[in-house]
Specification:
single chain; 776 residues; four-stranded antiparallel beta sheet; 8 strands; 5% strand; transmembrane helix; CSC1/OSCA1-like_7TM
């Protein structure tokens, strides 16, 4: 690929980024878009609408980039959770290692590649990208020691940084377990595959079993019921209740005719009446009478509660029966994290489901070969023109040729990749995951494998076929074939960094789909006081993308280092966009984690082992490719020094796997026993036992009813979202009003988003309704 095509792709994507970021800096200030860009803060009660008319609202400004470096890690941990901190540390690690890599390779490796052979060099924009790769070196070159030394520096720096990061995050995970408020999952074990006895119910069987074998530690249990029509109706009723939470009871909602926004004809609106108090509601059906025990069927699964954390840990780690397919025990996920639908799946079906999902994922990988091969054909138009003469006319048009070969392939690949995350999430749910965090973790791994296979390996294979190179004939040929193929794809990988990296991050902060949906909803709906919908942070898509660019950076570092500056720009941009501005909640910098996405459940930092293992894989793959190139260039010295480096990297990986990885998969008994003793000494244990049974309720309206009646918060209050107002400095109010047209909740009233607010409580009214209420 020519440098001119790379510059064309870079120019297009830079223009897209500038346009999108400028639009974002304007749209975020518009009061109509507050539920798009500040959904989390509105749900948490941290802001309400403010409608000043000032011209700065319509002027693009970089004010959201002012306080990037002021956020501390503790504030980020408090506001967004451990997973957000781990993700940002992934980005910081990538910035550090690729800064070192870029300095070493651009300063030493790139000049050696460029002047590797005596030749007449053209102007930079007319050169081919292969001139900057290791292919430009002649066989037996004495300068290959530079590449070998750079490989040692990159590997040493990466392993050193990985070790310190792994150690730090392992300590943070232990702190996440010990320093947080008591969690119900620490006392709870999920029991599945309860045997059926015709003489008694599942509940009686379970109670008899644990009373017999765990009489000293067994506390109680909560059965899992079939997800029937009752639960679906209650879920729909809850959504309707939340959608009406901003309507004032003092205003008479009489039917009226208003013109339709589309056809102009009369349409009936507000054709409902809000009851003034609970006494006017329908009597005879109390919520407490609507219990699943009288309407739904028991399933062979239950949440079993124990008196101490250590007792729950022991039960979850041992076999409960001589038949491993019965009485299967696992530590329960957090209440908000439970994936209730999968608890109805019989345990004996899970292994079949895993095989089916594996076959389906592999089949989809092979189906995806078709668009990837077509994309590679676009990048190799010059080679295809020999077989298809009609392409020669396109090649004569220089700008069109540059757009087709430099920009269009990566765009098409990204469009096809939009179908991957939903499908992989469906496969993960089909496997029978018991929690939403496990499902997202499983989807993350699937998307990671899929992305690396199709973007890296399939592009290399299809490009080799188009170039009529020999595909791998034996295992011994793999390093040499990779060494031949990777430099030829360096241009495509660089353009993919532009499109999937730069432009995608600009789209992420812009939130185009949410913006379009908000605009459509406001155009169609006549109710302007809508409720706020929030999103979960897409770790399962962003972590694989981060790791893919890390793989591309490592594998091209000593082979084709021209990609490194562009990757470094991507990581810096990702840090700016995703970092949580916890220092001042009214600053809109990097609001994706804090202001847009809500943290309802998390994995407790379990994404880091995925990042660590994939980084080690990228390093080893880089060393294998370099070994193949050293063999092709007949450098026995460089090849001899590369083999020990591979072995040392594998030893480092094995050490980290034994030293740190178990912390992310198991709970240390020592820590749990100390926590039990501390709770017993402070007298909190009995209070915790009383609250356990009601936490794992399949019908959340039971809890919402109690919360609306004014009961105090439970000991497990850490499951609720923290109040952002506690983190916001008071002096930032005036600045925030000028920046993005919102004002804090100065009255001190808090909005409860977990329950449907009472219609008669004035603190749940919107500002418009309060003004109308005062006028009346």
């Amino acid at each position: 690929m020519e440098i001119a095509a790379l510059l064309t792709s870079a120019g297009i994507n830079i223009s897209i980024c500038i346009v999108l970021l400028s639009l974002y800096s304007v749209l975020r200030k518009q009061p109509a878009n507050y539920c798009v860009y500040f959904g989390r803060r509105l749900v948490c009660g941290g802001a309400r609408r403010y409608d000043p008319f000032w011209y700065e609202r319509f002027v693009p400004s970089p004010s959201w980039l002012v306080k990037t470096w002021e956020t501390s890690e503790d504030e980020l941990l408090t506001a967004a959770g451990l997973d957000a901190v781990v993700f940002l540390r992934m980005v910081i690690f990538s910035i550090r290692i690729f800064f070192i890599t870029a300095v070493v390779c651009i300063a030493f490796v790139l000049p050696v590649n460029y002047y590797g052979q005596p030749r007449m060099h053209k102007e930079i924009h007319l050169e081919s990208s292969e001139v900057f790769t290791i292919e430009n070196l002649k066989e037996g070159s004495k300068w290959l020691w530079v590449h070998c030394l750079a490989l040692y520096i990159i590997t040493s720096a990466a392993c050193l940084l990985l070790y310190f990061e792994y150690r730090t995050i392992a300590k943070m995970r232990l702190g996440h377990i010990t320093s947080s408020a008591p969690k119900p999952s620490q006392f709870t074990v999920l029991i599945r595959a309860i045997p059926w006895h015709p003489e008694q119910s599942y509940s009686d069987t379970l109670s008899k079993y644990f009373t017999n074998y765990y009489s000293s530690s067994y506390l109680s249990h909560q059965m899992v019921y079939h997800n029937g029509i009752i639960q679906r109706l209650l879920h729909d009723a809850e959504r309707v209740c939340l959608s009406l939470k901003h309507v004032s009871p003092e205003i008479s909602c009489k039917p009226s005719l208003t013109p339709c926004n589309f056809c102009g004809g009369p349409t009936a609106t507000n054709s409902f009446h809000i009851l003034s108090n609970e006494g006017d509601s329908v009597k005879g059906m109390e919520l407490g009478e609507l219990t699943v025990t009288t309407t739904e069927q028991e399933r062979p699964a239950a949440f079993v509660f124990f008196k101490t954390r250590y007792d729950a840990l022991v039960v979850s780690e041992v076999l409960q029966s001589s038949n491993p397919m019965l009485w299967v025990s696992d530590l329960a996920p957090e209440p908000h994290d439970v994936y209730w639908r999968n608890l109805n799946i019989p345990y004996r079906q899970l292994w079949i489901r895993r095989i089916v999902t594996l076959v389906g994922a592999v089949a989809f990988m092979f189906v995806f070969l078709i668009p990837v091969t077509f994309i590679q054909g676009l990048t190799q138009l010059e080679q295809l023109s020999h077989a298809f003469p009609f392409l020669r006319g396109i090649l004569k048009k220089k700008f069109i040729n540059q757009v087709i070969t430099g920009y269009l392939p990566s765009v098409i690949l990204i469009l096809f990749f939009y179908a991957v995350p939903p499908l992989m999430m469906y496969f993960s749910a089909l496997e029978g995951c018991i929690s939403r965090s496990i499902r997202k973790n499983s989807a993350c791994i699937k998307i990671l494998y899929f992305t690396i296979w199709n973007v890296f390996f399939v592009n290399i294979l299809s490009g080799s076929v188009i170039r009529q190179l020999n595909v791998f004939s034996s295992v011994r040929d793999i390093p040499a074939q990779l060494a031949r193929a990777v430099p030829t794809q360096a241009g495509f990988f660089t353009t993919y960094c532009f499109t999937s990296g730069w432009a995608s991050l600009a789209c992420e902060i812009m939130q185009p789909m949410a913006l379009i949906w908000n605009l459509a909803a406001k155009s169609i709906s006549t109710n302007k006081d809508e409720s706020y919908e929030t999103l979960r942070f897409p770790y399962h898509t962003e972590i694989p993308r981060l790791l893919l660019f890390g793989l591309l950076g490592f594998t091209n570092s000593v082979i084709a280092p021209l990609i490194l500056p562009f990757l470094l720009i991507y990581f810096f941009l990702a840090y700016l966009i995703y970092k949580n501005q916890a220092h001042d909640l009214l600053d809109t910098l990097n609001l994706q984690i804090l202001n847009v996405y809500i943290t309802k459940y998390e994995s407790g930092g379990k994404y880091w082992p995925i990042f660590h293992n994939t980084t080690i894989f990228s390093l080893i793959l880089t060393q294998i490719i370099a070994l193949g190139f050293f063999g092709l260039k007949l450098s026995t010295v460089a090849s001899g020094f590369t083999i020990p480096l591979i072995l040392l990297t594998l030893l480092f990986s094995e050490y980290c796997r034994n030293r740190f990885a178990p912390i992310f998969h198991k709970h240390p008994a020592q820590v749990l026993i100390d926590m039990d003793r501390a709770d017993e000494m402070t007298g909190k244990m009995e209070e915790l036992h009383k609250k356990l049974h009601s936490v794992y309720s399949q019908i959340p309206l039971h809890l919402q009813k109690s919360s609306s009646n004014g009961e105090s918060s439970t000991p497990f209050s850490n499951q609720e979202l923290p109040d952002p107002e506690k983190l916001k400095p008071e002096e930032g109010d005036a600045i925030a009003k000028e920046l993005w047209g919102f004002q804090g909740n100065e009255s001190g009233q808090e909005h409860d988003t977990k329950s449907c607010p009472s219609a008669s409580s004035p603190e749940h009214l919107t500002p418009k309704m309060i003004e109308l209420h005062k006028l009346n």
